[in-house]
Write a structure and sequence with these properties.
270 residues; alpha+beta; Muramoyl-pentapeptide Carboxypeptidase, domain 2; 2 domains; 4-stranded antiparallel β-sheet; two-stranded antiparallel ribbon; 11 helices; 6 strands; 44% helix; 7% strand; binds zinc ion
């Protein structure tokens, strides 16, 4: 019966556009129909379309109109770039923290694919330590080495730092966040960051994915669009061109480190 009525209403809606007298009654019917639709339809999020270059860090932030350099002392050094929208939100959070005697500083922001490749390859080759260990010596088997590096570092192409929506705050050392000073900062963030629409991406107690990172925070209103686009557009062909990349697919890196095992607060719509 309901469908029958709807079929009757549809031609009426298009027909009535010609007459003023009819328009008011049509509007009422349309309003009723619309109300019903709104009540029934599940919440629909309109996602922005993000191109692959912006998802994989294949852009030059200093030349990209979405990005700007973070001024010192908001950042701890020159040459760090972030999306303008994220910087605006971070400044507000930073000012609020300052009023409570907490000092927040960005120590890492946008990273290009090539920069992440440099970090990754250096760890793979043993030129740079990972978690205080020389990975090449500790893990002669390359697949096991890739797995070990993944506890601390993202494979090039899969880092949320490529998006310009994520930042590291104050220190990338767990010891700092366990010290009295760092603990105060972390407590403030866990209590207040959500008000400013930031979330801690890699929390404690997840079964898989990266180790806990007290320092890594995402700006949800923007990051959720990148997250959604990444899941839709990125395949293992895009995750290549660095040492050990042939293990990406068999280790299910996209699912385990980008799509799953992140704080669910970070993918909620607001
Ligand atoms: Zn980070």
């Amino acid at each position: 019966m309901r469908y029958f009525l709807f079929i009757l209403i549809l031609p009426l809606l298009s027909y009535c556009n010609t007459s003023d007298t009819n328009r008011s009654s049509t509007d009422k019917i349309a309003a009723k129909t619309k109300k019903k639709t709104v009540e029934k339809a599940p919440q629909k999020i309109e996602y922005k379309d993000i191109d692959k270059a912006h998802l994989l860090g294949h852009i030059k932030a200093s030349e990209d109109t979405l990005f700007m350099e973070i001024p010192v002392p908001v950042a701890n050094r020159e040459g760090l770039y972030i999306q303008k929208e994220v910087l605006k939100a971070f400044r507000k959070m930073r000012n609020a923290a300052k009023k409570d005697g907490i000092h927040l500083k960005i120590i890492s922001a946008y990273r290009s694919f090539n920069y992440q490749k440099w970090i990754w390859d250096s760890k793979f080759d043993g030129r740079k330590n990972s978690g205080n260990r020389n990975m090449r010596n500790s893990y002669p088997d390359p697949r096991k080495r890739v797995e070990a590096i993944l506890n601390y570092s993202a494979m090039p192409g899969t880092s949320r730092h490529h998006w310009g929506t994520d930042i590291d705050i104050n220190s990338v050392s767990t010891a700092y966040f366990e010290s009295p000073q760092g603990n105060k900062v972390y407590e403030w963030l866990t209590k207040n960051a959500q008000k400013h629409e930031f979330c801690q991406t890699y929390t404690a107690g997840r079964e898989d994915g990266y180790n806990e990172e007290h320092w890594h925070w995402s700006y949800i209103p923007l990051a959720k669009h990148y997250y959604y686009n990444f899941g839709k557009k990125i395949s293992y062909e895009d995750i290549s061109g660095f040492k050990g990349s042939k293990f990406a697919k068999e280790l299910n890196v996209i699912q385990r480190f980008v799509i799953n095992n992140i704080n669910t607060e970070c993918i909620k719509s607001h």
